[in-house]
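Data availability (excerpt). The following record was deposited with the supplementary files.
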Amino acid sequence: MRFAFLVAAALLATAVEAAPVKVETQEFPVARGSGPHDVAADPSPGGVVWIAQQRAGALGRLDPKTGKVDHITLGSGSAPHGVIVGPDGAPWLTDGGQNAIVRVDPKTEAVKVWRLPEATGYANLNTAAFDAKGRIWFTGQTGIYGRLDPDSGEVKVWPAPKGRGPYGIAATPKGAIYYVSLAGSHLAEIDTESGDAKVIEPPTSGQGARRVWSDSKGRLYVSEWNSGQLSRYEPESKTWKVWKLPGQRPRAYAVYVDERDAAWVSDWGANAMVRFDPETETFQTFPNREPNANIRQILGRKGEVWTPESGTDRIVVYRFQ
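Predicted structure:
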């Protein structure tokens, strides 16, 4: 069966100064041309995996046990970019086509849409994260970030302090919200009550901060697209550390930190997934099986890292021990 194609990825992995972690991958094909952009796995073991199918205007639901993918239409003109699983267990999407935040009921498949205020204009919505009070924050590349309160239905939008570029966004374990700006090449912390954003400049100028994720200690890992670096910001000490990805021309697109605090990065330059061990400060590289995989967002659950290959119309899971 196609979905059950297993690759002993550890055999392909190359390690730099560290013993490789044993990893296996499993591939799941999705509909050709559907454009799997971002992916989010339900936290329960073996649970469904949600797929933002940007070109299809739909939410995909993958059953890892069978490989079956169902498609839930989101609305006229839909073009979802990001998807995450909320504290309510439902998939939430940033829908650039509808200029809205969308929730899908995982049982009834009912679709609820919260459109941005008309005065916002087209936001080119990107990614979302929930704060400690259950409010969802989101970014728009045209130069905005915003907040939806699901209880009241209120949607508020703020202009980004340095204009266009807000891209990845993430919450720390304590519910603090940070976003990064691709065009603005910076990290920013949002005051979740006032909505004000404080810019935090990384040490490398023009690095193209693309995605951000927190580890268990609240340290922020940033994938730097232009520089090909992985950086980490520690809010308590306000200090940075920076590591260049292996290879000649790395292009760090997305970053995700697993439950062991290892950082996973999608490297478009090497057409590979890269795992970073913060204890040894070393990388392990897992080449993609097909060219131009174009992995965008990365999310996971215990023992698993899930990736959407937008270039090959596949979902791939990396299982580690």
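Summary of structural features: The domain at 2-292+307-315 is CATH 2.130.10.10 (Methylamine Dehydrogenase; Chain H).
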